[in-house]
Design goal:
This protein is mainly α. The chain is 57% helix and 11% strand.
């Protein structure tokens, strides 16, 4: 299919904008947004550039997002970078997997994937999240045999890493404490535009960006069931 030079130029402008800001909002860049949504040729060109950059281009509501694919370490985050960002300087793999388990637990507590809108609550206290993490880790250890653990999550290793973190109720921000570890992860998610972390009230709220991702992409029924199996939650709970 032959494309007009004007369409190619417009698609390049849109893709460059997405590379800069990771999202294109109708309310902020109306001309670019309309060019993408109202011109199929331009939309196809932008999506093809996204594929070449190992990313997906998706529109949820009135926002177009650039979403790096899972193995895209250039536009996304590598395991090594995430480990250094979220965990203490002496972190091992079990610390890294604990950080991912924290994020997964947060998502499951906010979303259930069962209705037209997967979101089930408006906010969560940091202390409640802390308790949920500890509870799910202990449940995972008690429910998981050694044979199961070889093919799934190593709950015992993550619980060991979690319990190795000191407790400090004075508001510590050190990654060697449970409170500081959680603070680092929540601050990171806020920088990505996924949550609002209100430190003064120790409150967590999700953003429309994360709500869109969960509603339209992450929590289809198959993905939801896979997440719940990972966390050890059965259908009749």
């Amino acid at each position: 299919m032959a494309y007009e030079l004007e369409d190619i130029t417009a698609s390049q402008r849109i893709f460059y904008y997405l590379l800069q800001y990771r999202e294109l909002k109708e309310e902020e860049e109306l001309d670019l947004y309309r060019a993408y949504t109202e011109n199929e040729a331009i939309m196809n060109l932008v999506k093809r550039q996204g594929e070449a950059a190992e990313s997906n281009i998706e529109r949820y509501g009135n926002v177009v997002y650039l979403i790096p694919k899972e193995d895209n370490d250039f536009l996304g985050f590598s395991k090594a970078l995430l480990k250094s960002t979220l965990c203490k300087s002496t972190a091992t793999d079990k610390d890294y997997y604990l950080s991912q388990f924290v994020i997964l637990t947060l998502l499951v507590e906010f979303y259930d994937g069962q209705s037209s809108s997967s979101k089930t609550r408006d906010f969560m206290k940091v202390g409640e999240l802390m308790n949920c993490i500890a509870e799910r880790l202990r449940e995972g250890v008690s429910n998981q045999s050694g044979e199961d653990e070889q093919g799934g999550l190593a709950f015992s290793n993550m619980l060991e890493a979690f319990e190795a973190l000191r407790s400090d109720d004075r508001g510590s921000r050190q990654k060697t404490t449970k409170e500081g570890f959680l603070h680092t992860i929540l601050t990171f998610l806020q920088k990505q535009g996924l949550i609002d972390y209100i430190e003064a009230d120790e409150m967590i709220k999700t953003t429309k960006k994360l709500d869109h991702f969960m509603d339209f992409n992450l929590l289809n029924k198959n993905n939801y069931n896979r997440v719940m199996r990972v966390l050890g939650v059965t259908e009749d709970e």
